[in-house]
């Protein structure tokens, strides 16, 4: 039986992630030849840059969500522009500035203005919600920057499949959130800060709920202070298991000291396998929460109306 609010389209898009990661597209620039790498993108297209900045540190990676490149950006800066539509106005603004400054540029898009660029363009399949194309958008970065190969991609696919295999568990967690109308508080780790943000924005778009994200150890210097006094019936603390034993110790101690229980989620495997496990888990969780709330997880018409209003104001 299909639950109210579930048109199945979003679930199919989410499940396509395990095939997206088999893409062999790659950014064929040597990042070590640049002083910095700037990854410009908004919303679902922008999360790839944030995730890359968490796990790649041989050169500075600056994720950028806005209209303007930093003042230091010049021919020594590689600028990667990611826009699923190819027409996102903030990203196009950064693209134009990069050309004016003589920055080397690579674009990842499914069409639009960026697809007509005469330089390096990775053309990815169209027809998805931008947030659902994360595999297509991030794998070219990981293959190019971290030299991932087909064997790595196969391991990532298996990790994603293992997350989807936990759908019964995921539905139970979605029910906990829905039945009490509880706000998700997502606690990331240094290597998964971008993934924590991904969870928050997926809750926003797929579930249409307010969500909050932070990360350890930073949260132990601020967020931990409010945890003993909050109403557990209104919030759900969800933490990611880290590859760093010290961060996992912080998770344990924070629960003990605050008297608040965390729902800890994680898996084994390589860094990128764990990363994609968490992405897949969070995407499916936000989908099921939306279904339980009786809304369409696919619908983001309010965002589309905003973009239309901005475009109309410039005519």
Describe the 3D structure.
- The chain has helices at 9-15, 17-20, 43-55, 89-101, 112-115, 134-146, 150-164, 167-179, 193-207, 245-258, 271-292, 301-313, and strands at 36-40, 61-64, 77-83, 105-109, 120-123, 183-188, 212-215, 235-240, 263-265.
- It is an alpha/beta fold and 315 residues long.
- The chain folds into two domains: 9-148, 3-Layer(aba) Sandwich (Rossmann fold), CATH 3.40.50; 154-292, 3-Layer(aba) Sandwich (Rossmann fold).
- Helix 1 (9-15) packs antiparallel against helix 11, helix 3 (43-55) runs parallel beside helix 6 (134-146) and helix 8 crosses helix 11 (271-292).
- The radius of gyration is 20 Å and the shape is globular.
- The protein starts with 8 loop residues before the first helix and ends with a helix.
